[in-house]
Prior knowledge:
Rossmann fold, NYN, Znf_C2H2_type, 10 helices, 277 residues, RNA nuclease activity
Amino acid sequence: RTGVWWDLNTCPVPAGVDPRRVRGCIESALYKEMGYRTQVHIEAFGNLEYMSSALLEEISSSGILVSHAPCRGNSLRCLLGEWSEDYPPPATVMLISGCYTMVNPSFFRSTRYNFFCVYPKDCRPVILDTENEPKAFFTESVWENLLNDNMNNNACEMMNDDDDDPLFICETCSDIFKICGEFITHLNSEQHINELFGIVPRDSDSYEPIHFCQVCNYPGYDDYNMLLHNQSEQHIRKLAASSRKRAPLSDGSFQSNKMQSFQRVKQEEVSSFRLLH
């Protein structure tokens, strides 16, 4: 049994690559490294709140489990821990990520799995170069190269026994979904945001979320998740709407309003003068 965890945030599907063919590329790369067929569990995970339903549907259509798990390294440890209960070492694990907190050799070195590490082009985590320590990963690959080298070599398909598994999981709320539309609706729901409030880090004094967007009333798990939020279309739209409400008057509007105010003051002065006389 082989487990693959694919970080969609740091290793997205490159432009021009059909998401439905990613699974075949991963399986082909594993076959080349291992030399034999094996059951493969592939889980694409990360903060999925801002990804299109079309992309997630195409990924899941190939039998890849899609999980909203925004807590980065902590999420990976939980996912791998759950999997290891059913599939203890020795086994093979492939991690596809460029996240520093995920690609941490000290964590993987403490297990007895055979680990493959895949990271994005030009973003090799420097933590892999730890000196005076045994290597944690059996082999390393570049994500874009793995896809390109195996795009036309998908004949050696591995065995997929995940057919009965749910297609989409929200790890924050422990909810499972068979339909992508329902999954996306859930990620945008008040229930989901309330659950997120319960897991985000908080200030020790005020107990307020450390990472928080006042425009969207959105709590973030860390700086990276807040960056994803601030770059999202939802946030940009709300920010623009909020800015319009607070926008200062243009010069023309200001002068017009100033003249109207001046005229009202003059009228009030005239009325007061008439009353007095």
